[in-house]
Design a protein that fits this description.
Radius of gyration: 19 Å
Number of domains: 1
Helix content: 55-70%
Structural class: mainly alpha
Number of strands: 2
Shape: globular
Order of helices and strands: HHEHHHEHHHHHHH
Largest sheet: 2 strands, parallel
Strand content: under 5%
Amino acid sequence: MRKSLYDEPVLTAFIKVFGCSFLRKTGINCVGSQFYHFFFRQYMAALRPGRIPVTPADHPLDKRIPFLPSWAGVYLDFVGFWVRVISFLAHTFGSHSNRPIKSILVSISKIYASAAEVYSRNLSTTERPFYITRPRFFFIHLLDPHLLCIPSLHVMVVINAFIQFRDIMRGMGKEDAFSFQIEELRRGALAITESLLYVKQHSINCVAAAMYAMTRLDERLFPPEEAEVFGSRLFSGEALAPAMPKTGLSGEDAPAIRGHILSLYRRFVEEGRNAKTWDAPLLDFLRSEAGRNNARKNKAGSRR
């Protein structure tokens, strides 16, 4: 069976979820979690600055990734990416898809709530160009005050779509039958992860933090071994998306970027083994970055 997930209409998922009494409440909770933890929290922080510290999360290697506005469409597809999974399950398995779909909705809610545990104590941002020439970028700047960078929800959501779908197929004994779609999701997750770096919405530090968060949220589905494979395939030419834009990353930069992402991921995992809470390594990282930034500012001020 080689039906592409990208052919699935997003509307099918909404009809399935909100038209089914078994799924409706979970669907409402999922949408509520996204709006509360992403939009409400972020806009409250933007409108009432100073209540939560904001830490720049950039890394010097980010400057070696070109700004490519043509990737905005891939970046904005991250919601459609997991919603189409629900459409595919509904189309393919009918009422037998209810419980798998519910597990996906619950996992999305959990991702937003878990990431908010970091955001509520330390916000983070990156340098992004004020580029609103294209309508899609105007939309991005309008809806995103850009304060929720570590961990990246984009990366968490697309990794979750891939691993949840694969786990569902395994549970049904259909992993081989749907290997095409599983591979499509894996490569699509790589594409969206790369896109958020090309459109300068995140730093490579944010990618490592999101991979760590997914390991800690469900190590069975995203163990370190799986994360290592995912990170090692970024910027390797394996990414997939409809009408794939051209890339601008040089071959010599890709290994350095992958190396940093994986190195920082391993650091988070190692620190997390003895931490009291799962998010302690991310909060410690943000505080250390804030300290380094303050030291740089003080040093620059003393030279004047």
